[in-house]
Amino acid sequence: MHKYGEVFTEHEINRTLSGIIIDEMATHEILAILEKHGASVKDLSETLDIPAPEILKYVLALKRRGFVETEKISGKSPV
């Protein structure tokens, strides 16, 4: 039960936790690659088989937290 008195079902809790785990795994996979060498969003997307817009979301979150730096954007879109 949360502060508004609603009860979460086991399915809702499991779905939320699964999403968190998937995000954390993707983040760690991205960091592992970037520790070895630079890579574009497109390269990361192809290597990890994750859609480029999702990779961009993870990279921008890592940048906000100070874990990665971006060098350049080629063209009009990074994806």
The total count of helices amounts to 3
- Spans of at least 5 consecutive residues whose pLDDT stays below 50 are none
Oligomeric state, counting identical vs distinct chains: single chain
* Principal-axis shape: elongated
Helix content: 55-70%
Spatial separation of the terminal alpha carbons: 40 Å
Strand content: under 5%
| Chain-averaged pLDDT | 89
Give a count of the beta strands, DSSP E runs of length 2 or more.
Answer: 0
- Rounded to an integer, what's the Rg over CA atoms? 16 Å
Largest sheet descriptor: none
Order of helices and strands: HHH
Structural class: mainly alpha
Brief summary of the model shown:
Helix content is about 60%, strand content about 0%. It has helices spanning about 10-35, 40-50, 50-65. The model has no long low-confidence stretch (mean pLDDT about 90).
Describe the protein in words.
The chain is mainly alpha-helical. The mean pLDDT is 89. 61% of the residues lie in helices and 0% in strands. It contains 3 helices and no strands.
Structural key phrases:
single chain, 79 residues, mainly alpha, 3 helices, 0% strand, elongated
